[in-house]
Amino acid sequence: MVAQQADDPAARGEQRIDLSPLRSRCLSCEDKQLMSQRASSSPIKRASLLPGWDALLLLLLTLALVRIDSLAESAVLPTLRQDVLRHPLLGGLLPDAGIAAMGERSPWPGEPVGLLLIALAIGLAFAYLLVDLAQPGVWRSRAKWILLTGVLATVLFLPTLKLVLLRQQSGPASYTHDGGVIQTEATIAFLWEGRNPYIDDYTQTPMAEWGFDEYRTALYHYPYLPWTFIFSAPFYLLGQAVGFYDQRLVYLLLLAIALALAPRLVQNERAKLAAVMLIGLNPLMGLDVIFGQNDSFVLAWMIFSLVAWTEWRRRDESRWRLISVLLFGLACASKPTAWFFAPFYSLLILADRPELLGKGWSGILRAVPSILGRVWPALLVFGLLVGPYLVWDAGAFYDDVWRWSSGQGETGYQIWGWGASNFVLALGLVADRFGQWPFWLLEMLVALPLLLWFVRRQQQHNRPGLALWHYALLLAFFFYTSRFLNENYLGYLLAFFGLGYLIEEDQG
Asked: What distance in Å separates the CA atoms of residue 504 and residue 42, rounded to the nearest whole number?
């Protein structure tokens, strides 16, 4: 009792100090500090311990491409397994014991070479994720580029070459696309024979064996522009000399060059890798490359032009601007889809002289002479390539390139694809897929206001990333409201949406 009183401050006459408010405040401070630390450790920052976003992009695109390609091959190539096994090269890649072990039934695509390529691609993609966990350094960067190259080879280049070999074995109308390969090869032959590909039909070519009878209207029309077959003509001659040619070899060559140059469009390391992925592993366009549709052809020339433009802005050397303009002219002479980029490219070509664009529409109109003074080489190249065929037979050229695609005439193109035209069919506004409906009016009502809006936006923020987005979005709505929106167009658009986003973010 005495001891307790001695220890009691009140018993000793001492004033007792209540520290509870101070403790409460300190605890409050600690709680706030802890909460602040937790808040600062956001999911994005905590994710820095995980692989980078480029690794996730690689995995997503790789899996999407191999899945789509395997489904496509299984759906449209019923004799794929038998043709692979009896091919002298492809069939000899595996020992008999391995083929027997795999059996006659296996996962899609159902043949051993394709399965091994898929397994290699997925393994390389997984390895990319692992490498990206390592500390940054030169070796990690090189390893990622090597792994990405391996993925591209196993999901894009080698599958394409596989179908090229199978076509050589099975016949020219097999294992390929009609217009991008079969018809273009016939067009090159017409060129060397002195025949006009826009006048002659293709009923006596291998293309007559391809597709559905009621939808073979392309037998009477060549809808692509001259640079496609003029550029390919020397390669065709070389192929004839060695006894082996496939138009996809030209597409692969141009795509490989485009993939090698694409990293120059951006500066950040991950953005460089992503640029290659978005072009080479694009799930829709990748499938088109494998089967031989020609969107990669015009895409390559567009990328060449953009890379030259980028070099011009970095080095401030006018020769790069000239090269860019010439390459854009070649893109425009390849396929009309490039034409929609012309308004935005015309503004980009004045990127070093923003004062010339001024403000408002009056500023754009005053800049027209300056624009023409810089883009005339593109107009010249386009005229030299297209002009002779206009002089030869302008009516035939117009009929093939524009009239056919608008569904006019006895052999006009059918209503097709994934766009708004399906509502026209579903509502019974036409009797069948060959019926006439004013799609051109809908295109004008939608695309023209968008064009005006996008041009003004480009004038205010004249950057390449925005130009690509404006181009892709304008073309997307034009296709969506047109007579047909084929899936390969979406792959082409996706490439420019992706590049535009990367370039804009990289500059930001």
From this structure: 25
Strand partners, 416: 484
Distance CA 486, CA 491 (A): 10
Q: Which of the two residues, 410 and 366, has the higher pLDDT score? A: 366
Between CA 85 and CA 162 the distance in angstroms is 12
Contact 266, 272 (CB under 8 A): yes
Cβ-contact 428, 415 below 8 angstroms = no
First to last CA, the chain: 77
Instruction: Give the C-alpha separation, 307 to 53, whole Å.
Output: 24
Q: Which amino acid is at 400?
A: D
Q: Where are the domains of the chain?
A: 50-170, 171-507
Q: Which residue has the tokens 């520290």?
A: 19
Q: Could you give the CA distance from residue 125 to residue 479 in angstroms, rounded to a whole number?
A: 34
Tell me how many degrees the CA angle 265-495-462 measures, rounded to the nearest 5: 50
Per DSSP, which regions of 69-216 are E strands?
A: none
Structure tokens given for 199: 């006048």
Token pair for 466: 């925005």
Sequence-distant (6+) residues with CB within 8 A of 54 are 132, 144, 270, 273, 274, 277
Among 177-186, 214-223, 473-482, name the one with the lowest average pLDDT: 214-223
- Percent composition of the chain: helix, strand, coil (DSSP 3-state, to 5): 75, 0, 25
Q: Angle between the 295-315 and 318-332 helix axes, to the nearest 10 degrees?
A: 170
d(CA 140, CA 118): 24
Scan for tokens 């000899």, then name that residue: 92
Query: What pLDDT was estimated at residue 9?
Result: 42
Residue 416's SS3 state is: strand
pLDDT in tens, 118-174: 999 999 999 999 999 988 888 999 999 999 999 999 999 999 999 999 999 999 999
Structural contact between residues 434 and 407, judged by C-beta atoms closer than 8 angstroms: yes
Q: What is the CA radius of gyration of the chain?
A: 30
Please, what's the b/e burial string for 80-105 (b: 16 or more CB within 10 A of its CB; e: otherwise)? bbebbbebeebbeebeeeebeebeee
- Token duo for residue 214: 């009621």
Predicted confidence (pLDDT) per residue in 386-431, tens digit: 999 999 999 999 999 999 998 888 888 999 999 999 999 999 999 9
Task: Tell me how far apart the alpha carbons of residues 62 and 122 are, in angstroms, rounded to a whole number.
Answer: 7
Residue 24: left if φ>0, alpha if ψ -120 to 50, beta else—which one? alpha
Beta bridge partners of 484: 416
What pLDDT shows up at residue 491?
Answer: 96
